[in-house]
Automatic annotation (TrEMBL):
It holds the Pfam family Pkinase. This is Ribosomal protein S6 kinase alpha-6. It comes from Macaca mulatta. ATP binds at residue 59. Residues 30-132 form the Protein kinase domain. Signal peptide: none annotated. The gene is RPS6KA6. The keyword Chloroplast does not apply.
Amino acid sequence: EEYKITPITSANVLPIVQINGNAAQFGEVYELKEDIGVGSYSVCKRCVHATTNMEFAVKIIDKSKRDPSEEIEILMRYGQHPNIITLKDVFDDGRYVYLVTDLMKGGELLDRILKQKCFSEREASDILYVIS
């Protein structure tokens, strides 16, 4: 089943599909790889750009479970900050929205905290410096 891509808009966001000049389906531009994470309304997967072979992450949001426009607006507004992932591309196939972002390979901070439990003052300082 094939759907035409429609731009995603909100009050303060330009149509992202038009910004990137995208008139293709997600699967024509990127190749899906393994799961990175799974949530109640979305799944995050690694993907590879078909032309450049560059790796990215894609968050695939089920539109019947959640409206993605607020998340897109936040990523558009704050995505240039060095500690926030950059939104690279957006696709909408009618049922799902695909948010293509930088691929972060360092793992989850929460997982590291739960595994290590105790941090030295220096380790904690280094982490807080990066995220603040």
